[in-house]
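Possible regression after last week's pipeline update?

I re-ran a chain I had predicted before the update to compare outputs. Posting the input and the new output here so someone can diff against the archived version. Not blocking, just want to make sure nothing changed silently.
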Amino acid sequence: MTFKKDLSEHFKKFSASPFLFVGSGMSRRYLNAENWEDLLKKFCALIDENYTKIRSQADGDLTKMASVLANYYSDKWWDSDAKEDKDIRCAEHLLKSDSPLKIEISDYLKTIHEKVNEDYREEIELLKTSKIDGVITTNWDLFLEDTFRDFSVFVGQEGLFASRNYGIAEIYKIHGSSNDPNSLVLTHEDYERFRKKNPYLSSKLLTIFVEHPIIFLGYSLTDPHILEILEEIVECIPENKMDALKENIIFVEWDPEIEEPIFTESVLLKTLPVKLIRTRSYKDIFEVLSEGKRRIPAHIFRQIKDELYELVITNDPKGKLYVKEAETVGGIKGQQEFVVGYGAISKMKKTEEMAKKGLIGLTREDIVRDVIFDNSGYQSSSIIFDVFPGLMRNQGNIPIYKYLNGSGLISENGQVVKDGLCDSLVSRVSYDLEKYRPSGSERGRAKNIPQVNEGIEELYNTVDLNLFLRMAVFVPPEILDLDALEDILKKHADDDFTSGEKSQFIKIVCVYDLVRYSQKYGHA
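New output (post-update):
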């Protein structure tokens, strides 16, 4: 078989599309960018510093050289011609002693992708059409963002963990981006911080490595920083599973002397078997990636996953079901919401189960969920007269006012018509907010938390969830933002609470129900 056929057949072994892991060799190839040492030389010259002197002060270590140069910049840059107006234009980024050097490097790299090496134009165009799920890169320039314009970008390890990501149509810039100068992993100190966080990054990348073929482009087989990342990943994999990983990692080694690309095998870190491609052109690789079939474009699939995530988190599909062919979805103007088959089927099954179960079989959890999401379609009078008489026997707190109000049993001044109500429900009608507020030390604690009297969102954003569950009932009803509380309740409705936390959560739902529906607080 030919090289392209071999590579194509290899990709067919995977259910997921490849990820690219891109290094500085790609920027040198397509943008004529400097390697790391030449980049440091360039910025030594910018402030008239002697590169040889700096190299000797750093014992030849490039990360330490960057640290030494950053110190020189911290002293000299402010009075140099190189600064121009950057102290004003980039004031928000001048936060640390190494910021001036990072600002200069970022300013240079921000536009370098605008002029590509025309000798490789065909490769670049093929890369743009490659059917891949995402890119991981240590590069700072914006070439990849420009190439995959529909992909979402996550900068640094912090961005990877702080933001919602789905492993599709995404670019992970693990060493930072020129769009955020202080995110650059440049100096010796930066790399030390990066290494400390490496286990967390590795655990995040491990899932990608296990599920996708990973194509390394623009790296040397001996690149110490990439080998460190791979070593962290290898440590998470049992030895008897190591052979499975060898199918996933494909290392591309550029060799200007080779005539035809070779698809073979190699070993990294003495124990990690990998696939190895040796080639002087990436054209054949990108052609294979471009010929791959995908029924839904990656960026559209990511949109669907994002909407599905919201549906799973809230269990509240308030939007419309919109069916459109994948090729035209991106052109729809306005807000787009997607419901996929799984969600539709599960909702239908849940409705069927509820019909079989009958209203009489409803549990307190069913009632709590209905008060939170308001989407079950129960007839309020049936809940009041058919469900509550049996459900409330030997039952703790339960929200009632949504159904009393929906049955027309509450007057405008909040008086409840009690005729025909079961005794347990009548007794609960007398409950006020104080019924759901614990006494003793918790009441004293609430007085010492200022956010209790500022609002529900302020409290939620300030304290941990356990404390929030205990303190939320103390927020005064006159400042209680019911929409914000509703969002919080939806977010945590399916949490795996302890019995104590679950009890507190239900009390909060009862407070929400009381304030929203009882007509005593100006709502409903």
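Follow-up from reviewer: compared with the archived run. DSSP finds 26 helices and eight strands in the chain. Marking as no regression found.
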